[in-house]
Design a protein that fits this description.
Elements (H helix, E strand, L loop, with lengths): L19 H14 L8 E2 L9 E7 L5 E6 L5 E5 L6 E5 L7 E6 L7 E5 L2 E5 L4 E4 L13 E4 L15 E2 L5 E5 L13 E5 L7 E5 L7 E3 L6 E5 L11 E7 L4 E2 L5 E2 L3 E2 L17 E5 L3 E6 L13 E5 L15 E8 L2 E10 L2 E2 L2 E2 L3 E6 L5 E5 L4 E7 L4
Amino acid sequence: MEGSLADCGHSVEDTPVRQMSLTRLFCSVLVVLAGVSARAGTPADFLRLPPGFKAEILTADVPKARSMALGDAGTLFVGTRFGAGTVYAIHDALGGHPRVSTFVQGLKVPNGVAFHKGALYVAEQRQIIRFAQAEQETTGPRVSEVISTELPYKNGLHAWKYLAFGPDGKLYIPVGAPCNVCDEKDFGLILRMNPDGSGREVVARGVRNSVGMSWHPQTGELWFTDNGRDMLGDDLPACELNRMTSAGLDFGFPYCHGGDMVDPEFGAQGSCAKAEKPVQKLGPHVAPLGVSFYTGTMFPAEYRNQVFIAEHGSWNRSKEAGRTGYRISLVRLKGNTAVSYETFAEGWLDGDKVLGRPVDLLVAPDGSLLVSDDERGAIYRISYHPGG
C-alpha cells in the first residue's frame, strides 16, 4: 500500500484559501531542510546508479511532486497529492533555465496529469477536467472543462487517481479499492474513455491500487503496477507488474494476490488459477508507482524496451525487517517474459532514514529519464555519459 511519512500540509478540502500560499512556503522550507539545492544541474550525489549514469536536480521547487506529463513545447506539468491542490508547470524543463510556476490551485487531490493535443487533463478524486491550450501562458485564472464526472469514490483511501493516454488515443484511469482488502464491485478497476469523456468502459478488474501505466512500444499492450495488500506480515504479499493482453481481464483482487496467494478472508470469491498472473512479482510493500518502458536512445542498447519502476517505499514493515523499495528498479524482459528484477537507482534510503521517495517516471525526448520525488519536492534527470 502506498503511504507517506511526511505529508506536507493538508488535503485541499481542509485548507482555507488564505492558507494555501503558506502551505506552499512551508513545503518549500522542508525541501531546503532536506538538503536539496533548487539550482538546475546540481548533482544528486546521494543517488547510486550503474557506471556511466548520473543523476542531477532538474528542480527542487515542486512541493509533493507526483505524476508528470510533458507538453509539446517542453513544459513539464506535475500533479500533487497533498497541500493546496496544486498542479505545477515547469517551463523550459529540459533547457538550461527551468522555471516553476503554479499552473492551477485549489483542486481536489490532482495527482494524475496527462497531456493530449495541446490540452492538459487532470484527474481529481471524483472527476477529470481538461485545460485547453495548456502551454499558453496567461495572467488570468485557468478555466477548465469537466470531461468525466462521478468517478467511483467512497472514503478517500486510494482515491487519488493516475491518468494516461494510450496508443489508441483513449484516456485510461485506475480506480483504487477504498480499503486494504474488501469486495467492492465499483472499485479495483481500470477505466477507459474517449478524450471527451464519452464511451467510458471497464477494461480490467481485480486491480487493488495502480498508480502507474506504460504501453509496450512494440505490441501496444498496457502494462501497469499494482500495490499489494497490507497486514499479512512483513514479507507478504508481493506487489505486481502486470500486462493486459486484452480488455476485460481479472487480475485477482481481492481473492488472490501476486498470482498465487489466496486471500485468507476473500479467497473463496475466486480462483488464483483463473486470475491473470503478474509478469513479475515485485518486493512486498515496495509500493510500485510509476512505470515506464525505456524508449530512448541515450542509454545503452541493453535498456531499450526494458521496464523501469519507481518504488515509492514501504511504510508498514517492522523495524526488524527493514524498509523495502525507495528505489528505481529494472525489470529486464525477453519478449514478454521477465528474466530479472534488479536495482537501477538507489539512495533514497540510508539505513532506516528516508531521504526521498520516487513517484513517477518519464522518458524525455533526449532519452534521459525524469523522476519525481514527493518527499523532497524534486524532479531528477538521469542521463548516460559513456566513459564518464
